[in-house]
Amino acid sequence: MMKRGLVCGLIILALLTASCSNQQSTPTDDVLTPSFSMTALDGSPVSLNQYAGQWAIVNFWATWCVPCVEELPLLLDYAVARDIPLLAVNMRESPADIRAFLSGNRLEQLTVLTAPPNDVLVAYQVIGLPQTLLIDPNGAIAWRAFGPLNDASLDELDTLTGYSPT
After folding, report:
1. Is residue 79 part of a domain?
2. Could you list the residue range(s) of the whole structural domain that residue 115 is in?
């Protein structure tokens, strides 16, 4: 059992460190989102279930991933402007490194979750970074992008959420 967990962890680590992914976004078939609870950088518990009944964005990222670093400010601005919760799941970096990164990039208001367990990474099919998911109000994965987001990606999110600038 322990050997199997170690092998799964090593496979995930190898896939994550191989390289940051190329952009590929797809609507999904309303797959129910595996629920998770993690600890936020500030020490508070955060559960995806807290956001039931509303759209939410989950983004897997790391400070060493250049496309992640480039997209986080864009994604945060997008989420804030549309009042959509954004959960930024960091890939097991130290809290000190994460805080320094957030401070240096003026991203202190980002909700960062730390130390995702292996079962969450497997359930969400995290095979590269960055990866972004849009969770619908019913708790289903409505959209997923492997790789950095761009303006077309954000337009897709607007279409799915029904957002229209007034």
Report:
1. yes
2. 2-161
